[in-house]
């Protein structure tokens, strides 16, 4: 099954509604079929020997996973996409596609925690060295480049503290030194930032978040430009990574409404973030779309929107009270669930651990709480946060 090409001149919600699907290539059914497959039969021995047919085995793609990949390609402007079982699998696939024993990688210090664990364990065991750099480094990253630096990994904004990165400046420095640039673009989705348009080679998404959108799917996508696509595809084939067809289908279905959901997440989160800036008990609000945020100018220059996740720093002077105060805040919440991940319809809150940072400074005013603003009514979310702040003040 092949999809129709959706014109890039169309609006984002129109493209989301139609990307990765051509109903008339499958009897007119609106949604693509869910194909469960391991074995694929060949017509004859000659075609088996030459593998001269579109599908050869379940791990190499099915009409369902291809439909999702084609939709993501349309959104990213990429030459090819693979769907894998999780966001972390997407990160590791991208890294293993670009790195070999003896190589050096530069990874932003505000990186997704499991990515750091992968670098510090498996990559280290494979003889690959990682250096963590300040997310605000910009063009000065050129000073950290070595002859064996093969990968620069970015994440904008950064995990939990949302530092912005000057992606075009980093890309320019990396390309001058012959390094590949990857990005974890989960926060903004391709709707609000298209990394490949800014020179990034590989865009990574935990599609578990906004694309799937309902807290019930684990899936990741990795999208590459023309130069890197053959290497990414080959590495994926060698590793045998593949998303399950039901998860691919649910993610594709989630994509159809991602635009309207993301707009709601954005608007609610911004209203709440601005409201929190003036609240007693809140030292700082870490949201790049706020004018007060240090990286706001970069966000405004490069991004067309923001999503529903940001952090607050509680105003707690005595560090000995950080845990008690943050737990009081979290345990009082009624609408917010206490759970990892984000991008679903429900509001979530988690305490942030920043003890693994190497060069990026963690906030000193108090503990950091990450908030995922869901699709609930803003007044109810505000009231819940008020309860938490009041409990923290009394604890």
TrEMBL record:
InterPro entries noted in UniProt: Cys/Met-Metab_PyrdxlP-dep_enz (IPR000277), Cys_b_lyase_bac (IPR006233), PyrdxlP-dep_Trfase (IPR015424), PyrdxlP-dep_Trfase_major (IPR015421), PyrdxlP-dep_Trfase_small (IPR015422)
EC numbers: 4.4.1.8
N6-(pyridoxal phosphate)lysine modifications at: 209
Catalytic activity: L,L-cystathionine + H2O = L-homocysteine + pyruvate + NH4(+)
GO MF term set: cysteine-S-conjugate beta-lyase activity; pyridoxal phosphate binding
Matches recorded under SUPFAM superfamilies: PLP-dependent transferases (SSF53383)
Keywords, ordered alphabetically: Lyase, Pyridoxal phosphate
Alphabetized Pfam families for the sequence: Cys_Met_Meta_PP
Cofactor(s) the protein requires to work: pyridoxal 5'-phosphate
Gene Ontology biological process terms in this record: L-cysteine catabolic process to pyruvate; transsulfuration
PANTHER family: CYSTATHIONINE BETA-LYASE-RELATED
Family from the record: Belongs to the trans-sulfuration enzymes family.
Name recorded for this polypeptide: Cystathionine beta-lyase
């Amino acid at each position: 099954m092949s999809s129709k090409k959706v014109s890039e001149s169309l609006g984002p919600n129109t493209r989301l509604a139609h990307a990765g699907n051509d109903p008339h290539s499958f009897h007119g059914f609106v949604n693509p079929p869910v194909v469960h497959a391991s074995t694929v039969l060949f017509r004859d021995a000659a075609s088996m020997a030459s593998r001269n047919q579109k599908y050869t085995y379940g791990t190499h793609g099915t009409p369902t996973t291809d439909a999702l990949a084609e939709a993501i390609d349309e959104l990213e402007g990429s030459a090819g996409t693979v769907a894998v079982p999780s966001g972390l699998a997407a990160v590791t696939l991208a890294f293993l596609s670009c790195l070999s024993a003896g190589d050096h990688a530069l990874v932003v210090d505000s990186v997704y925690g499991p990515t750091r664990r992968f670098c510090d364990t498996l990559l280290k065991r494979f003889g690959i060295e990682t250096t963590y750099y300040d997310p605000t480094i910009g063009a000065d990253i050129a000073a950290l480049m070595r002859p064996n630096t093969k990968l620069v990994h970015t994440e904008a904004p950064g995990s939990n503290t949302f530092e912005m990165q000057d992606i075009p400046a980093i890309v320019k420095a990396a390309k001058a030194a012959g390094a590949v640039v990857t990005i974890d673009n989960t926060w903004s989705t391709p709707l609000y930032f298209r990394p490949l348009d800014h020179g990034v080679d590989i865009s990574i998404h935990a599609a578990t978040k906004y694309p799937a959108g309902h807290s019930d799917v684990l899936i990741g996508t990795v999208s590459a430009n023309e130069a890197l696509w053959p290497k990414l595809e080959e590495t994926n084939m060698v590793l045998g990574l593949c998303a399950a067809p039901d998860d691919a289908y649910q993610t594709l279905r989630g994509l159809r409404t991602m635009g309207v959901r993301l707009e709601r997440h954005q608007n609610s989160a911004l209203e709440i973030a601005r409201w929190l800036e003036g609240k007693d008990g809140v030292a700082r609000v870490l949201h790049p779309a706020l004018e007060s945020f240090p990286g706001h100018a970069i966000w405004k220059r490069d991004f067309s929107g923001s999503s529903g996740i940001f952090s607050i720093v509680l105003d707690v002077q005595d560090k000995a009270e950080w845990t008690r105060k943050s737990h009081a805040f979290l345990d009082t919440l009624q609408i917010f669930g206490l759970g990892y991940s984000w991008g679903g319809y429900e509001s979530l809150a988690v305490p942030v651990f920043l003890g693994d940072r190497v060069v990026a400074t963690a906030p000193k005013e108090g503990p950091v709480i990450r908030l995922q603003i869901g699709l609930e009514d803003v007044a109810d979310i505000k009231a819940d946060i008020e309860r938490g702040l009041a409990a923290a003040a009394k604890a």
